[in-house]
Amino acid sequence: MNRINGHQSKKSRPPMRRFALVCIVACCTLATSCKPAGETKSNQPNVLFIVLDTVRADRLGLYGYNLPTTPFLDTWSKKALVFDDCQSVSSTTVPSHASMFTGLLPSTHLTDNSHPTLEGEYKTLAEALGQSGYRTFLFSANPFISADNNFDQGFDASEHPWSKPHLAKSANIIRAKIDPSDKSSELPQKIQSGEVESWAIKACGEVAEDALTSWLDRSEGDKPFFVFINYMEAHRPLLPPKRLREKFMSSAQIRRSYRTDVSWNRMWEYVFGLTDYRPEEQEAIGLTYDAAVAELDEILQSMMATLEKRGDLDNTLVIITADHGEHLCEHHLLDHQYSLYQPLLKVPMMIWHSSRIQAGRNGDPVSNIDAFPTILELAGVATSSDSDGYAHSLLQTKPQRVRHSDYFAPPKKPIADVQSAHRGWNPKPFLRRLRAVVDGKYKLIWSSDKKHALYDLSIDPGENHNLFKTEPEIATTILSQLIPVTKAGGNSAHAGKGPRSASHAQRMNALGYTGQDDADIDTNGVNSNGIEE
After folding, report:
1. By Cβ atoms counted within 10 A, which residue in 29, 141, 206, 243 is the most buried?
2. Average pLDDT over residues 358-377
């Protein structure tokens, strides 16, 4: 395999079999006008595609949050096109990123936490742009979005905070943020003991700026660039520095934020209804998340300032969104598993270009998967397609659209870990697949255990009043719009496939993701797949 300056190169990868892309008309620009006939590819814009991992829209100032979590984005977004109603296609990292990279729904690509490897048969956004003359670079703080799971397919180079050139700086950033009194998770104790392993290196987004500028300097400058960056500051374990906690908390609240135990098992016990957090502890959890979002905002401000100073924002499209949100005790839930409620699905979406994007707000229903055809449209990449037809350009939104979100692989490791300490506890309510359909004001959550739910989001945004039995005609109509699953089985169709190095498995386990297929669970009557049909 070729390498670029010591970093992995994917140019030697053979062409893939399928190109699951939306058919794009190449003449349109990101304004509403068309390119003049004969305009060459030398006018292709650069593309900076940023995913704020685990960031929910309603904790950002530009979406109405009453705390100053995002002063930079609040100002920057006034020059961008902001979408007020963006829904993610999933509540977890892998299916959401796979959709953004391929333009396909999770029900089509079936990449999930039990099968985290992106199948090579699907041609990716990076491949499409690379074949159209782009140089391509990936920087991801999420261990899923890496070569281990083939998410670097089509990228010339891919780097991470734990990559050798960045590991020392990343570790120093993490160490500097640890407060000696922090007992909130497993991570501080490990860092304080000197056990700085690669899995711990995720909340150090400053490194992305160094990695990107270095790559820009050494790559082919006569080509436009496509850069994808994943930031993990808002993903647990949360490590916002004390100075940012002080922005949102009193001294007593800061002390509580360090003392509130949100270690994996304690958190899952709460999610499974086996224990509780006091109101003041729930407040500390939410304010710590706010401080982490504020840290992201500072990181983005620095990145944009550096790129602008270098001239790298000239003719550059910037897209900022999230893969999913986060529960902050709504519905007695934390993290982003076992649910398709709105705190997980409603995410930010904004696009900017200094001359081709007209600033403003758009209230039409959109999805984070829509970044895919939008980028291709701007780049002038026209392709034939066997797409599932779901993704739509953000330049051609409609006031009415049915949106879909999938959750096919409930993780078993948290259940097994908690069950070992709570013998006799029945995990059955959590061992189910979920699918969501939003049609206008109504949202239906289909469940594999047939405990479906229907909500009227216009009067019940908190999803507290299930109308499934009282509005049967509406429920039946929306149920009929569920998109069929492409491959037989519909859940973990590829379970067990895909390369995993020992270090990668260690990172995944530390983030609470692995052990889903082989966990020892007493299902108390649930079938062998962990799902009641």
Report:
1. 141
2. 97
Which residue do the tokens 């009043």 mark? 465
Q: What amino acid is encoded at 324 in this protein?
A: H
Q: How confident is residue 497, by pLDDT bands cut at 50, 70 and 90?
A: very low
Residue 371: predicted pLDDT = 97
15-36: average pLDDT: 37
Question: What is the SS3 string spanning 389-452?
Answer: CCCCCCCCCCCCCEEEEEECCCCCHHHHHHHHHCCCCCCHHHCCCEEEEEECCEEEEEECCCCC
Buried b (16+ CB within 10 A) or exposed e, 345-364: bbbbbbbbbeebbeeeebeb
Secondary-structure breakdown of the chain: helix, strand, coil percentages, each rounded to the nearest 5: 35, 15, 50
In terms of DSSP bridges, do strands 225-231 and 46-52 run parallel, antiparallel, or are they unpaired?
parallel
Pair 326, 56: CB distance under 8 Å? yes
**Average pLDDT over the chain, rounded to an integer:** 85
Backbone angles phi, psi at 171, to 5 degrees: -60, -40
CATH architecture of 3-30+47-397: 3-Layer(aba) Sandwich (3.40)
- Residue 493 CA to residue 515 CA, distance in Å, equals 16
Q: How many CB atoms lie within 10 A of CB 128?
A: 24
Name 383's Cβ contacts closer than 8 Å, sequence gap at least 6: 19, 21, 23, 24, 128, 376
Checking if the pLDDT of 34 tops 60, the result is no
Domain positions in the chain are 3-30+47-397
Residue 113 binned pLDDT confidence (cut-offs 50, 70, 90): confident
Please state which of the ranges 189-203, 325-339, 518-532 shows the lowest mean pLDDT: 518-532
Q: What is the pLDDT of residues 411-422, one digit of tens each?
A: 989 999 999 999
Distance CA 223, CA 45 (A): 10
Residue 15, number of CB atoms within 10 A of its CB: 9
